[in-house]
Amino acid sequence: MNFTAQQIAGILEGEVVGNPEVEVSKLSKIEEGTEGSLTFLANPKYNSYIYSTKASITIVNKTFEPENDISTTLIKVDDAYQSFSKLLEYYNQVKFNKQGVEQPSFISESAKLGRDVYIGAFSYIGDQVVIGDNVKIFPNTYIGDNVTIGDHTILFSGAKVYSETMIGKHCVINSGVIIGADGFGFVPDKNGEYSKMPQIGNVIIEDHVDVGAATTIDRATLGSTVIRRGVKLDNQIQIAHNVEIGKNTVIAAQTGIAGSAKIGENCLIGGQVGIAGHITIGNNVRVQAQSGIGRHVKDNEILQGSPSFTFGDWNKSYVHFKNLPKIVKSINDLEKKLNGNN
């Protein structure tokens, strides 16, 4: 699909400097730009590339003024990085703008589909499912009974959504995600054998949530596992039963959150973090990668380590950790001298 500089400037509310009719059909890095490609310049570190790039169109900040001759057509905007991101979002909307029901697929007679829905081949839509307008469900997706999916949500191939799950509007559920599987609940008997505790709750995902590939979110034992508005989850995250994650919190890959943990709003949690069950983490908390959180955490804390403690203390302690062999040797030498004097 081809776009002219003038069309792109219209989408971005930008100003064309150069040929408004030049066309592009692909995207590129500025240092790898080729004829017919679109790129952007936001970081001054890359300024030199704008004089050599072969890209046909480059998005730049309004403040940018070339110091030498350039061949690329410029589109000047308030924020080149944000504008390029907006353009990528627009491109995805065009790319994924599919409609209709492909065959073979199964849709229960009791399911309700909104306008302009797309359901890919080999998908299963269960009883009493409610799907909103402009929802895109890609092939090989399973939607269990009594699930609701809000407008403009996308479920990519191979996603599995168990019964009773509620997914909001403008969500993205990536391939391999499993939402609503049973929580990890087993009860030992007097013989030491385990019997399964029924998990009869559900999962609620609010609006504008992104769930990365192969992430799993377990249904609650009772009540709901809740992912609040604007949460962004990376790939391969495990969220156990009855967990609640506050709005606009971002969690990186391979993090595991045990049952009934409560995480506040606007938190940033690094990769491979382990969070114990039944604890509360406050708002605006920062957790460094590979930390282990086993206690309640107050608002605005920054944590690192396993078990974790405050980031400032961890940095001070690390100076001593890495010098520990020298410190031990010094202590041993001092003890030998003292013992020799005695």
Task: Describe the structure in your own words.
By secondary structure, this protein is an alpha/beta fold. The longest helix is centred in the C-terminal third of the chain and has 18 residues, at 324-341. The strands form 6 sheets. A 12-stranded mixed beta sheet has the order 8-11-14-17-20-25-28-31-34-37-39-40. The protein is built from 4 helices and 40 strands. The protein has 2 domains: 3-95, MurE/MurF, N-terminal domain (Udp-n-acetylmuramoylalanyl-d-glutamate--2,6- Diaminopimelate Ligase, Chain: A, domain 1); 102-314, UDP N-Acetylglucosamine Acyltransferase, domain 1, CATH 2.160.10.10. The radius of gyration is 27 Å and the shape is flat. A hairpin with a 2-residue loop joins strand 39 (302-305) and strand 40 (308-310).
* CATH superfamily grouping of the largest domain: Hexapeptide repeat proteins
Shape, per Cα inertia axes: flat
Compute the number of strand runs. Answer: 40
CATH class of the largest domain: Mainly Beta
Rg, nearest Å:
27 Å
Protein name: UDP-3-O-acylglucosamine N-acyltransferase
Catalytic activity: a UDP-3-O-[(3R)-3-hydroxyacyl]-alpha-D-glucosamine + a (3R)-hydroxyacyl-[ACP] = a UDP-2-N,3-O-bis[(3R)-3-hydroxyacyl]-alpha-D-glucosamine + holo-[ACP] + H(+)
Domain UDP-3-O-[3-hydroxymyristoyl] glucosamine N-acyltransferase non-repeat region: 22-89
Organism: Psychroserpens burtonensis
